What we know:
Layout: H1 3-23, H2 28-48, E1 51-55, E2 59-62, E3 65-68, H3 74-83, E4 86-91, H4 97-107, H5 111-116, H6 119-126, E5 132-136, H7 152-168, H8 175-191, H9 193-201, H10 210-226, H11 231-242, H12 253-258, H13 271-278, H14 286-295, H15 308-323, H16 335-343, H17 352-368
Antiparallel strand pairs: 1-2, 1-4, 2-3, 4-5
Helix pairs in contact: 1-2, 2-4, 7-8, 7-10, 8-9, 8-11, 9-10, 10-11, 10-15, 10-17, 11-14, 13-14, 14-15
Amino acid sequence: xxxxxxxxxxxxxxxxxxxxxxxxxxxxxxxxxxxxxxxxxxxxxxxxxxxxxxxxxxxxxxxxxxxxxxxxxxxxxxxxxxxxxxxxxxxxxxxxxxxxxxxxxxxxxxxxxxxxxxxxxxxxxxxxxxxxxxxxxxxxxxxxxxxxxxxxxxxxxxxxxxxxxxxxxxxxxxxxxxxxxxxxxxxxxxxxxxxxxxxxxxxxxxxxxxxxxxxxxxxxxxxxxxxxxxxxxxxxxxxxxxxxxxxxxxxxxxxxxxxxxxxxxxxxxxxxxxxxxxxxxxxxxxxxxxxxxxxxxxxxxxxxxxxxxxxxxxxxxxxxxxxxxxxxxxxxxxxxxxxxxxxxxxxxxxxxxxxxxxxxxxxxxxxxxxxxxx
Length: 374
């Protein structure tokens, strides 16, 4: 989910709760706001499946998009959930309008009253709501920080999502934020790599989701570190990997959906050139990012006249794209399957040294506890 979609959902949730508090659950204005929320939510859930809303002291997370509490709607909604001891809400695809109206009615109740009745979990059970689950916290004063509240992979995904949104709106792209996110990600990876490997091992994202850019960056930087690339050029590589598909944001959605690694690289694709054009004058590692954006699909077209950096990002991009998918049925290959193919010389002609290094990196991460293969 992009930042714009998450912001629209936060606004719709807060509006429905406020209308229920001010006008009562049976007022037509309340009913209208709940119907609008339901329509907005169902539109997002067509592609997401289940929808998760999670609050901590700094962020409101809706799916993979993180909204800061300084946001005019995310902040009040996070605080509203926190004082009711609600850390997260998960709405499954089968949720009905009546079930949504029930949870809005309960969230509009004063926190002391809701807690005295056993909290939201018990209240939903009593009301017969089955498609909405709740993760409760133990503190009724502020939202409790979620386990992933400081997750650098999600912060980097949020930064990329905002960049893509800005580019789609023809607004300036804040590459400084991307650099900061990658620097933080690299530092976290150096200290405690396993949590980041766990995030990469979760294959439940689509190639067009921001987390694909983050996973590509992690795979790229991990392989570069194994090849003893120094920190500064490794960070630049990570930025280039994060931004490799930024040109997609400049395309209309139907075209964007066709220009995907899983469809097979085409020399007529527009997004590599669009991305390179966008990054041509960029600071903060933009020169390398520009070249990588232009070249990242060329190895899949059996072109060898590309930078080694582009070759490495292209490999990471391919491995993540071919093994990701919101549901297992749409994933073309498993991670071990794609690496076995590449090690056997099948598929795109990537640099064989890069392939062996990445295979070794993934093997070592799996030995350390990352579950890539389930």
